[in-house]
């Protein structure tokens, strides 16, 4: 499991052999662009702490600046190692930006680098979270009745109105979970600023994972309702 204390903080320049902090992109000794190593993470790459509330404008600005610095056109006449490093960093930058630009993407990535990602696809989307059992049971009953109505030739408005009613409590659950995730993100950032203990960090990460799994399952339920409406 990754933790701030176990994350490497030094990378080695392949051009001059000098050491460089993991959050820099150019060697302090020879100024050459550094190759991507096996350490670091998307937050570090952008020079950001592992926090969840990020200013979108600041992230966009960092992305544009790094995009210019890494652009392969600048390394057209450079050594093969430098050209390869520019391509590596450009690709990694795009991946990092796509992941960190949304609140949910940041939560998913934080759980991953902290060792709290869902253990498999069934945990991520198929297993019914205990907190949603009642809603899932009621929705499945309603969907069965709607399918019977449709099969019997009932008018569209008869079964569509029932689906719309069935969607309302699920929508409300989603809004509740979005608010809970936002609150947990705020608490996580405060804990990072305060240098919270490992026990506190793990408790918050587990809560984030649980809310995220429930949120993903709710999204699947709503997608199922949309598919029924599209019939």
Describe this structure in words.
The protein is mainly α and 231 residues long. The chain folds into two domains: 10-113, DnaJ domain (Helix Hairpins, Orthogonal Bundle), CATH 1.10.287.110; 121-229. The protein is built from eight helices and two strands. The chain has helices at residues 42-45, 56-70, 80-100, 103-113, 121-126, 133-151, 156-194, 198-229; strands at residues 10-12, 19-21. It has a two-stranded antiparallel ribbon. Strand 1 and strand 2 form a beta hairpin. Helix 2 runs antiparallel to helix 3 (80-100), helix 4 (103-113) crosses helix 8 and helix 7 runs antiparallel to helix 8 (198-229). The radius of gyration is 23 Å and the shape is elongated. The two termini are 45 Å apart.
Average pLDDT, rounded to a whole number, is: 87
- Strand-and-helix sequence, N→C? EEHHHHHHHH
First-residue to last-residue Cα separation: 45 Å
The strands making up the biggest β-sheet line up spatially as 1-2
- Main beta sheet, described? 2 strands, antiparallel
**Total helical elements:** 8
* Radius of gyration, CA atoms, in whole angstroms: 23 Å
**Number of discrete domains:** 2
Number of strands: 2
Which ranges are low-confidence, i.e. pLDDT below 50, for 5 or more consecutive residues? 1-6
Would you tell me the structural class of the helices and strands?
mainly alpha
């Amino acid at each position: 499991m990754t933790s701030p204390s176990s994350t490497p903080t030094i990378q080695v320049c392949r051009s001059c052999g000098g050491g460089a902090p993991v959050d820099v992109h150019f060697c302090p000794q020879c100024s050459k662009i550094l190759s991507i190593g096996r350490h670091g993470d998307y937050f570090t790459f952008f020079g950001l702490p592992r926090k969840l509330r990020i200013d979108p404008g600041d992230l966009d600005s960092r992305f544009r600046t790094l995009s210019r610095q890494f652009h392969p056109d600048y390394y057209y006449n450079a050594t093969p190692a430098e050209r390869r490093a520019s391509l590596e960093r450009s690709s990694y930058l795009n991946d990092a930006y796509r992941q960190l630009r949304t609140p949910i993407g940041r939560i998913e990535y934080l759980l991953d680098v902290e060792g709290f990602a869902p253990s498999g696809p069934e945990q991520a989307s198929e297993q019914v979270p205990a907190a949603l059992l009642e809603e899932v049971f009621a929705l499945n009953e309603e969907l069965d009745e709607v399918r019977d109505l449709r099969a019997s030739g009932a008018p569209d408005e008869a079964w569509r109105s029932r689906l719309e009613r069935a969607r309302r409590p699920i929508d409300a659950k989603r809004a509740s979970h979005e608010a809970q995730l936002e609150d947990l993100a705020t608490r996580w950032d405060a804990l990072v600023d305060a240098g919270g203990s490992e026990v506190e960090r793990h408790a918050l990460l587990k809560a984030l994972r649980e809310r995220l799994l429930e949120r993903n399952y709710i999204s699947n339920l709503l997608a199922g309702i949309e598919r029924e409406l599209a019939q």
